[in-house]
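Reading a protein record of the kind used here takes little practice once its layout is understood. Each number in the token line that follows is a code from a learned vocabulary of backbone shapes. One such record is shown here in full, so that the layout can be seen directly:
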Amino acid sequence: MSNKSLVPDAKEALNRFKMEAASEVGVSLKQGYNGDLTAKQAGSIGGQMVKKMIETAENSLKGSR
């Protein structure tokens, strides 16, 4: 699996999204390398991001009916 974005122009928006998700779960991220995070912290950020993406998709589907 590649770490490249399918839409390169979205990189900044994805970084902001990640920072927002981290803030929501109480994990402070710094710009650049964050290799000092625990697996639990990183997982909580990723989980929050997925939760928000699913919520957005559900709302989009609900609105298109």
Summary: The chain has a mean pLDDT of 91. Residues 38-65 form one domain.
